[in-house]
Amino acid sequence: MDALDPDDARPPFQQVAAVLKAAILTGKYQPGDRLPSYAELASQFEVAPMTAQKAVGLLRDEGLVISRQGKGSFVRQRTERSVGLRPHVEAIFESGAVAIDFAGFSGETLQGVIGEPLDKVRSGRLQPESLRIRILLPDLSKPVGLPALAPEGVDSPDVRKRAERIVQRSTQGIVETVEELSALGLVESATAQVRTYHAAPLFKLFLLNSSEAFFGFYPVLQHSVAIGGEPVEIFDPMGKDAVLFHYAKTDDDSAIDSQYVDQAQKWFDSVWSSVAKDVTA
């Protein structure tokens, strides 16, 4: 039991928040750790549950924690590389209904993070009731700005064809796997769609069950690639090591995280249903 200091002039909820903040900053609570429930905090500090809720709200406002609907409050993982996305993807595969929306450049990272969960579905270790994957990518059959030849930054059909082959490898693998799961009856409803639109995305966005969002910028790098057997210098949006920022919906729909996830989903849906076109084999 952590009794509050009676000589501290601050309101109880601020004192509780200060203790929790110190525990987070000193590593007692690690990124991803779940904080005690409001009832547990109330018992721990001998305060009312509402006081505990206000304390956690302060930490949420400071960006130190996120509160997930029906699951509690967790120490925020301020930034994550794509490997940190995998546990969140696997978690929704265990939740029954799975809905994943991805917007980005190639879909390579998406294929990497969902490959293992899909394998577990195939082997029967995961049994989602439904699976829907939507992939939104640039139309590389037309000039889109990037990738481009360096150092002038001019368009090159050969450079775009190289990028298109990378996209096709990633997306076709996902679509074929999901279609196989559906054909084998391993998932009652399983679909994977790919649509393209005429733009060069400089970010990647993952939306998980419309309740979590992971967003990261593509740094544009100059490097050499082989085209027609010859080295060619290009400007390329590189997403493999892009830092992802994590947002999760909370019990408070007015919270910044909730607003971000809602707006990101609205953006995706608006592009998907307007200018994006289905990719056909």
Summary tags:
281 residues; alpha+beta; Arc Repressor Mutant, subunit A; Endonuclease, Chain A; 2 domains; 7-stranded mixed sheet; 3-stranded antiparallel sheet; 12 strands
Query: Largest sheet, described in full?
Result: 7 strands, mixed
SS-derived structural category: alpha+beta
Q: Quickly count the helices.
A: 7
CATH architecture of the largest domain: 2-Layer Sandwich
User: What portion of residues is helical?
Assistant: 25-40%
Query: N-to-C terminal Cα separation, in Å?
Result: 63 Å
Shape: elongated
| Spans where pLDDT lies below 50 across 5 or more residues | 79-83
- Please identify the top-level CATH class of the largest domain: Alpha Beta
Our estimate of the beta-strand percent is 15-25%
> Which fold does the CATH topology of the largest domain refer to?
Endonuclease, Chain A
The SSE string, one letter per element, is: HHHEEHEHEEHEEEEEEHE
Average pLDDT across residues?
A: 87
Q: How many E-type strands?
A: 12
Strand order of the largest sheet: 11-8-7-3-4-6-12
What number of domains?
A: 2
Q: What's the Cα radius of gyration?
A: 22 Å
